[in-house]
Amino acid sequence: VADAAIAGQAGEALRLLRHAIASGVDPVPIVAVLASQLRQVVKVGSASRGLRSAEVAKQLGMAPWQVDRARQTARGWDPQALGRSIQAVAAADFDVKGGGRDPVYAVERAILTIATERQGRTA
User: Fold this and answer.
1) CB-side exposure of 107: number of CA atoms within 13 Å?
2) Assigned domain for 123 exists
3) Please, what is the angle between helix 27-47 and helix 53-60, to 10°?
């Protein structure tokens, strides 16, 4: 779900979300993974200028493959879009933990925001 959303593939991310929910997956860990992946993109993007993956991985406590993946994901994102996506995930986190009426809708809304921001359009 998170990989598709962060890649800007809204339809695929929603399909995967609905399958996960139908299979009994709780929305809370889905939101946690969205947040984690966005944080990795921000951390790697701000720490990796001119450094090798292994150096960045050691500095951030990540595996080199995670750094490579986050670097690849970071391409096409601008800081403002990342910020808006992180805010959408924070709102979804609040909603899925009891602050909202419909946790699944909250995750769907966050996914759509992330995918739209990744594609360079304002949500």
Assistant:
1) 26
2) no
3) 120
pTM value?
Answer: 0.88
What's the rounded Cα separation, in Å, for the pair 46 and 105?
Answer: 32
CATH number, domain at 106? 1.20.272.10
Which range of residues forms the domain containing residue 49? Answer: 2-118
Helix/strand/coil (H/E/C) assignment for every residue in 34-73: HHHHHHHHHHHHHHCCCCCHHHHHHHHCCCHHHHHHHHHH
Is residue 113 within 8 Å of 123, Cβ to Cβ? yes
Sequence-distant (≥ 6) Cβ neighbours of residue 112 within 8 angstroms: 10, 14, 123
* 87-96 tens-digit pLDDT: 999 999 999 9
What amino acid occupies position 111?
I
- CA of 50: how far to CAs of 31, 57, 65, 103, 106, in Å? 31, 13, 17, 41, 38
Per the CB < 8 A criterion, the answer to whether 9 and 17 are in contact is: no
Residue 23 lies inside a defined structural domain of this protein: yes
- Domain presence at residue 61: yes
| pLDDT tens profile 26-40 | 999 999 999 999 998
